[in-house]
Amino acid sequence: MKPIYLDYNATTPIASEVVEAMQPYLDEHFGNPSSSHYYGKKAQKAVENSRKQVADLIKAKPNEIVFTSGGTESNNYAILGTAYSHSQEKGHIITSQIEHPAVINVCKKLEGLGYEISYVPVDKFGKVKLGTLRDSIRKDTILISIMYANNEIGTIQPVDSIAKIARENDIIFHTDAAQAVGKIPIDVRKSKIDLLSIAGHKFYAPKGVGALYVKKGIELENLMFGAGQEQGRRPGTENVVEIVGLGRAAQLARTNMGSASKHMTKMRDKLYELITESELEFIRNGDPKQCLPNTLSLSFADVNSIDVMRQCDKVAFSTGSACHSAKDKISGVLQSIGVPDRYAAGTVRLSTGKYTKTKDIKTAAQEIIEIIRQLKR
Length: 377
Fold this sequence. Notes:
The chain has helices spanning 16-22, 38-58, 71-84, 101-112, 130-136, 159-168, 188-191, 240-277, 305-311, 332-336, 341-344, 358-376; strands spanning 4-5, 65-68, 92-96, 116-120, 141-145, 172-176, 195-199, 210-214, 282-285, 295-300, 315-316, 347-351. With 377 residues, the chain is of the alpha/beta class. It is globular and about 70 Å long.
């Protein structure tokens, strides 16, 4: 019997509707989108249709969508592309202490090249301190990059306020929205966002495909050079089959977001309720109100989450306290929000999805509770 899947923030299964949409482009419609004959035109039409579907999801224009290999590439292109376009002055960049490694490590790379980076702190809920962010701005600040929602604790940042600060100071604003797109409504026009990263496999599209929203008028230095695909921004023959999958997933997310969000929230809250009833000692991490609808980060006292995961063969989830190298180390996010070591080591991230069932939640809660009780004996 397969374990119950509660790790939707790590990746999602490909929706059956997405697989169905992709299938013809695996065999029948195999053309190169740059070819001018029937097969090429068929592929090109599919790419442009997907571009519109992705644009519609975030209220952008189709010509502002650049297809990439995923969130990591989109983040790299947004940050490095901005930095390299200001390479003569090697300006200043502001980010937060709780960004994904695909942002933090890019910034560290730029530090090694002579750029200066400010890592602004967050409050106990994981929200960026706007006053500190505002005070960090300098005359040479070229970019503010703050994630839309945190992948570990689910806290949604005050994106509109951050964008306003950036706009008032004539600074480009980028947000890594990998965890937010498809889960909560996003309007890049209303929020005044300049650059936004998308990862397809976070909302039921395939792995290896994503997009970067680039607001009209924003200039980025190219990171790759070739034949000029993607409006000259990202060369290389387009991954048509996965782009089609991304577009269909975006269309589904836009259509079903209300009901899907309601379902994920119900499942998450039921899980929290059952674990709370166990009277185990734990802390809930993140903002309980301004939070992704599916994310539950809990830090249990006096246990190690790696031990919990090793013994829990009925449930698939993430150990929120472990870094990506799998070493027994408290994550930077938990350190930044001030989770005490006694709790931080016992952190688990449970993330629901549109396929999660009530019976799964009940079984998962029982399993996790029992294992933690055994470990504490």
